[in-house]
Structure prediction request, 313 residues.
Amino acid sequence: MLRLIWPFVLAVILAGCGNSTISAPTSSQTPPVHILPSALAALDAQHVIVVGSSTSDRTRGAIATTADDGRTWTSRVLNMPPLNGVAAKGTTVLVTADCPKATGPDCVWISTNSGGSFTDLPEVPRLVHPGLVDEKRGFVMTPPPNGTTLWVTDDAGATWAQTSTACVGPTVAIDFPSPDESWTACGGATPSETTRAIWQSNWEGSSLDLMSSVGGASATGALPSEGELLGISMTADGHGWLWTNDRLYTTSDAGRTWGPVKAADTSASSSVAAADLVTPQTGFAILSDGASSVVARTDDGGASWTELTSFPI
Prediction:
């Protein structure tokens, strides 16, 4: 799975100098800031962070948080471009934004106070799909077609270095349900037995197991081959989700077998834009029909969904 090499493959390029802090507004806005959601991260069944862009100004990033299962939300606009990724562990929040490195900021920000303020991380290439192992260790990926490269940190973003993953083709997504257990989804729009695979590993990469692949290679389970593979979310006890551009799949045996589940019972269609499984039964997702998106919750592993109508969409 993750082949995070320590010491790093390349020298550290960040020294923490020149960082700028973006503070969030000091009070909730009335009426609340409405958000076009693009990514989410759940700390547990009650605490969820959703990021995207402001519906009133699509050039500005926005963030919404809930601490009560999604019944009520606090939202605000941030002084950064539209956000396309978020990861959260404890009080650390890592976000990435839609801004080319050549013409804009470095597109990676970190917060150590639960999103109250964010620090720009300079000198990092344009990156996507942020992830956190714990409050200090995290990673972001280079976008396609170079999606096999990771930038990793073990000091909350003060320094970063480059490494690789277990994937032969593009690395689609990485998830750490616990500090010692990682899952990597490999392969994108074109499935093949050599590229589309699920690997299980640890942070150091000293343990690396192929759990499933297209065609069910020796000693592995069969991985769904339909659609473009977009993401993975696992729990520490081996339950998880895998989603493509048109279907959501679930596993209860650590990724050895996968079966489809209905992806929506909401006003949006069944397309999953982003998801996070918190327990084997409870999870959150951004569901989209292409024209509109909703934030939804499931308490039966994804068989049915409830739209969180209080989300400031």
User: Anything to note?
Assistant: Residues 1-29, 264-268 have pLDDT under 50 and may be disordered. The CA atoms of residues 141 and 150 lie 5 Å apart. The two ends are 36 Å apart (CA to CA). The longest strand covers residues 35-42.
